[in-house]
Amino acid sequence: MMTIREIAELAGVSPATVSLVLNDKDGVSVETRQRVRTFLEESGYHQKRSYNRTDRKSIRFIKYKDKGLLVEHNGEFITRVIDGIEDGARSAGINLKITNVTSDNLERMIEEINAEQDDGIIFLGTEYRAEDSDFLKKLTAPVVVVDNEMRNQSFDAVVMNNENAVFSAVSYLKSLGHTRIGHIRSEYVTDNFHAREVGFLRAMQEENLPVNSADTYYVQPDLDTSYEMLLKYAEDRRDFPTAFFADNDILAVGALRAFRQAGKRVPDDISVIGMDDLMLASISEPLLTTLKIHKKTMGKMAVSRLMDKIFEGDQTVLKVLVDAELVVRDSTGPHVGKSTEQSDVKL
Fold this sequence. Notes:
Lambda_DNA-bd_dom_sf, transcription regulation, Peripla_BP_I, HTH-type transcriptional repressor CytR
């Protein structure tokens, strides 16, 4: 029996178009649809049976990476999201398949995934770029994106509430008496990091705190390189903020190491807040104050939303923002002359 790719070549269309015809989806002209059906009949292609409501459903998690700078260096975060997806799928009584996809093979893999005719897809959007959204539109099954808001795009998404989380971090630092707060940013920009920048600037403005571009440090998003770059910053500068928000825990721990190496005391001289609450945060020196992202919850909610789309045919586009939780540890303290008791704070 011929493959979808071979049929597409004969019909002069893309494999995605063949999948649309097979699944009776919109987006194909009447003439093209008939031509494809003719080739399907002539080739003897037999479509996999359709599921009805009582059949066991099958969904796929696409673990996508672009350059791998975050997906590979932040494996704990991704693993916890997958744990949540697995729990959600198990509770719903559905099969779960996991597929690794890269930016190099994305287009080809989407064609192959469409041919598998999954009931639904959860797509890891950590490193997904807005300019590649046309590829996702080619998926014929319902899609929910996790860890990327997909702003200004018509995809359901489950993501942490980045802006509110960073706002709470800045507000907390201000409550400790810090008025000059720096931002340690990733040079590799993602949707999440962009949202954290927006949240940081909004918080600084609404808290009436000055923003100094010289207090924004751009580093590579891995522990060793961020440490080296921040150490150079710390050694080259005498004038320093009294507190920093870092885009994630990896950058924050790199900062802790760099500041200590440069002879600065944390939190006596500088306070540092990260984001994610990875295991790294609970074993760093000092222990890292951070924003806890509920990673398993995000995975479970992605499955729940996908089930609504599969079983109920819900076409509404929903963006689910999951609040973070400020976990106060030892890397933050009062600015000189300010005494404030630390505690765990929920957003």
